[in-house]
Amino acid sequence: MRPTVLAATSGLLAVFLCGSAGAQNLLTNADFSLGLAGWGVTATVDPGSEASVTVVPEDAGGDDVPAAVKFHLRMGPPNLEGWLLLGQCRAIQDDRPLAFGARVRVDRQVRANLFVSAAFYENTQCVGSRFGATSVKALPSSGGVPLSSNGRWLFVSGVAEPPPGMRAVVFALQVDEFAPTSAVEFDGLIDDAYLTSAGAQNNLWVVPSVARTPGLNGNLWTSNVTLANSGSVDGLATLKFLGNGVDGRAGTEQTVYLPAGHLVELRDVLGGVFAGPPDFGALRILATPGISVVSETSTPSPNGGSVGESLPAAGPGDLVGLVPRSLFPVRENEAFRTNLHLANATESEIVVEVRLVAPNGAQVGHTAVTLLAPLEMLQLNRVVTLLGVNRADAGRLTVSTTTPGALVAAYASVIDNITNDPRTILPR
């Protein structure tokens, strides 16, 4: 094999820059607005293969800087060994966990995958043995073969814990060959890289329902989630998709890095952030102070435009506990139907009480949703009928939990039966 080394900047050949740690993003030129300055680039391929790293005027949508790195790697028989790597060496001052990641768009891959990784070294030059390496695949795989991202920008993130005595870390984006018996190709873009202290993400937010799923009359409902950092320091938000009707503790997680004052819209959050199949369910978000969350779920309208609803994430003050909270007005008749969404915000089983109250104050329906599993989300369609009432032109739902210490996120959608346009009803 003959190694090919690509220079990132003049005088920098397969050498990673070393810098001092700080409280913010540790990476130099993380948005590639200065080209490849600060980055080391290495390619190792056999003769006849192709490898290149270039900066192109593209943007993942996270910082509005029209610059991204393009990876191109092609290897064909009989020369099939090789890899392509972009990275930085950064000094660290302590053994606190580091969060790292990037946004990736894969335009073409044949038996090749991109990995985002962090590995630690005992010296600030990042030479010699590496320790505590953590690597995350950019693409999910089936049977070991990477699946395509279908041109979507994906979030790739991980957390690495340095072993004692480490002095530096190498953050790297790397494409490896997959199999020695067939062609290997990769074309993709990378943007918005970050490496930062994982810190304490103590603020809890719950979006009771996000979707990427068909609805009635052939609708396709998708959800966007918008994060805004109004604080004075950079922050992190870890999103965990909890699914529906299941214990959500095993749900998939992704971490988003959000500089101070910035806003990022995660379009089609289930498809773009979690790269998952059609599904719906709750979303738990643990964020650093200063970050707030709003979601919106919509579908294209047959008459043009779209219909949908905006839903702010429920923070600690919005979650329902022992004291009943009301959702009103709810309707279920020829014109409207009402769906109730419940999401357990705790990691233990809980009991949720749901009651329907008529306009005159009389309780006309009641159910106890028993043993809602840890971090489980339930969608109760046509909840008025479910509560044993045939019709409600106006009414009030009350939600509470009798489980000590339990908290539940709740909201109702009152849906027009003709247009399928929902109205959001929040607990009061």
Q: Quick one: CATH class of the largest domain?
A: Mainly Beta
| Shape verdict | elongated
Residue stretches low in confidence (pLDDT < 50, at least 5 long) are 1-23
Return the structural class. Answer: mainly beta
Number of strands: 29
The CATH architecture of the largest domain would be Sandwich
Largest sheet: 8 strands, antiparallel
Radius of gyration from CA coordinates: 25 Å
How many distinct folded domains? 3
Do you know the CATH topology of the largest domain?
Answer: Jelly Rolls
Mind telling me the CATH superfamily name of the largest domain? Galactose-binding domain-like
Distance between the termini: 68 Å
Q: On the 0-100 scale, what is the average pLDDT?
A: 87
Strand content: over 45%
Helix content: under 10%
Outline of the structure:
By secondary structure, the protein is an all-beta fold.
Structural topology:
Blueprint lengths: L2 E2 L35 E6 L4 E7 L11 E8 L6 E10 L6 E13 L1 E10 L9 E7 L3 E2 L2 E2 L6 E8 L7 E10 L6 E14 L5 E12 L5 E10 L5 E9 L9 E6 L4 E4 L2 H4 L6 E9 L3 E10 L5 E7 L12 E8 L3 E9 L5 E8 L5 E10 L4 E4 L2 H4 L5 E10 L6 E9 L5 E4 L3
What are the defining features of this structure?
mainly beta, Jelly Rolls, Hypothetical Protein Tm1070, Chain: A, 3 domains, six-stranded antiparallel sheet, 2 helices, 2% helix, 53% strand
